[in-house]
Amino acid sequence: MKKIGYGLLVVFFVLGLVACQSDASPTSTATSTTTQKTTIKQQSKAIHYSGVPTLFFHGYGGGTTSFGSMLQRLARNQESKKELTLTVLDDGSILAKGQLSQKKVNPTVQVIFQSNKSTQWNQSQWIAAVLSYLKTRYHIDTVNLVGHSMGAVSTVDYLERQKPDETQPQIKKVLLIAGPFNEFLDTLPFQSQVDLLTNGPAEQSVRYQQFVANANRIDQTIAVEVISGQLNAHDLSDGTVPLASSLAIVPLLRDQGIDVDSRIVQGEMAQHSQLHENKEVDELVSHFLWY
């Protein structure tokens, strides 16, 4: 009987250990989940709301759908609020839909070029017209700019061509998505990415040479982020713009003492026209602008 009693004690002891381990596992999982929720909550609290408008410029052939879905998603996440759509006609006149409340809601402004396949020089003048409109109509002193593809190229052209004056708001942050800054030259087959980011592209297009020539006119106080797409390890492009061309603007800006960072988004949703539908890009945009 003693041996049987001792054996039962051992069995109960082992079962007790198993039970403790089973209890410990859910506790650990619950702790991990709580930590994750806390982190997300802390991130949402860290967002900075202001009345500074952010303007979005579409790419070549783009229109209302180019940034439309992204602006809806950002608004749905309560990170910003789309308040105004400005359509720029060929003569530089502007048609407005909506209005800026000038409240601290991180207002966004979607800009549509009527001639959506025009040159970067025309578009940079139209950007100036839009900013002049905001300055005159709403007395806006500071703005952020976001450009995709040709819209990114025209944004840099604007930054180099427009002289600061009382008709133009100050540019605070600039986000450039998949811009063909070195046109469609791909230097990565014969140049490392490190060398590209350090010394610039080994081969320079006419467009890039013009950017280099006027780079000293860009306001050094702006902050810039460059987002590029890469489909996979074998295709160093977003299917339209070579990674090398999009990244080529980074060393140019850095040489001017401008605070610039670059991000590469990878995968199928890194395709050129899908970048503004990519939720990873949404997060990069919102965190650069408002966190």
UniProtKB/TrEMBL annotation:
Keyword annotations of the record: Hydrolase, Signal
A GO MF term: hydrolase activity
Protein name: Alpha/beta hydrolase
InterPro entries named in the record: AB_hydrolase_fold (IPR029058), DUF915_hydro-like (IPR010315)
PROSITE patterns according to UniProt: PROKAR_LIPOPROTEIN (PS51257)
Pfam families per record: DUF915
Signal peptide: 1-24
